[in-house]
Amino acid sequence: MKKISTKHFCRDYLPILIFILAMILPSFVHSQELINFVEKPKLLETGDIGKGFNYYRPRWSPDGQWLSFELIDENSLRTFVAIPGSNTCFECRGKSSAASSGGLDLFSEKTGGKAAVTRLSWAKQTISNTSSFCFSDEGALYKSNAYVLTGKAAITPPREFISVAKMGEVGSNNGILIPEMGFTSTKSQAPVLFTDNDSGRLFMIFGNQDLKQITFDTDKLKFTDCCPKFHPTDNLSVVFVRTFEGNSDLFIIDDLNNPRATTRKLLDWPKSDEFAPTWSPDGKHIAFYSNGDGATPNKKSFDLFILDPASKGQPTLLAKNIRPDNIEEKLGPPYIGPQWIGNDAIIFAKDDNQAKDPLMYVQISTKLVETLPVGTILNDSPSICDLGDGTYLLAYTAFGKAIVDLSQPDINNRIYYAKLIFSR
Fold first, then answer.
1. pLDDT single digits (tens) 228-239
2. Which pTM was predicted?
3. How far apart are CA 372 and CA 76, in angstroms?
4. I need a surface site. Which of 58, 174, 177, 407 has the fewest CB within 10 A?
């Protein structure tokens, strides 16, 4: 056998070896991506419910068993709670003269009127393997529980969370906007934050009907406080959005036991909007969307930032040109906001017509931005549930697979769900 010299190997074989490595290395790197699928995206089956409607705002229960979503047409907003993969679907209806089509109503009594359930919110954790949620209906605030027992789905009939008498203490219009549930202790149920439609201020209500105002007038200016989010480990601090004369800013209450003295503005970008704040799981950072950074205000596009609420430093830009969740004007707040994967990654939808709005993720420590290969187009409103074992559930809206003909008039956005693993 002829011996090959090092000189001849480098001349004759090294270029071939380099070519082979160049071909296989991208595949190897791709397989080592930060986020990978355990279960690829599947369409949420809901039977005949919402046929021909657009689906919006999917949100996971804290245990990942249930998924809520909204259907919106020109006349109403309808909210449902479903179990993915089971075709089990419950409609939240407070005042409706007609039963759900293809589903079960939460309310056994129909008193007439229109369906006006708005903005369902899940509690932040389960108690005794039960997920709690609340929603508002024409001013009333309701609470219910959802659980799965021996393979059968069950939801308790909703009950009024805040009494008519207590509503009189809030505002003359008795309107509740955008409830947000907190954390449940072993001795009580989760408190609920909500915006009073009359005063525009935030209130907190407890299971014993103890009502507490937590934001207050400043120089008699007419502003609205909304979209509050509890700190991820307790009910002590809250981040929220304050809107005034068309401008939105981020505020924080550091101690709900003393809200007047501990409310402060998080950053001063007077000519841009900051909204949809979400906490990192460890509570050390807040992610949010903004259409400016102080130096370049009044932009039409939105970018993704994070900030440290404990410091006075400037926010960090993570990604540009994102979609801030169902941007159609008829929807309005609350926005689901940036979705955290652990404390070092965020999933978001990219506002990119040419690429048909892909889902993306950014790693905070490295600033790596990558596309999540979901295989669907016109993606929006990702929602994440941490299962606690290193895997995460993903839900989002999309107009279907890449082969969908968007010129067809009957094309609507639906909900897809999947399971992810995060390689820290």
1. 999 998 889 999
2. 0.85
3. 33
4. 407
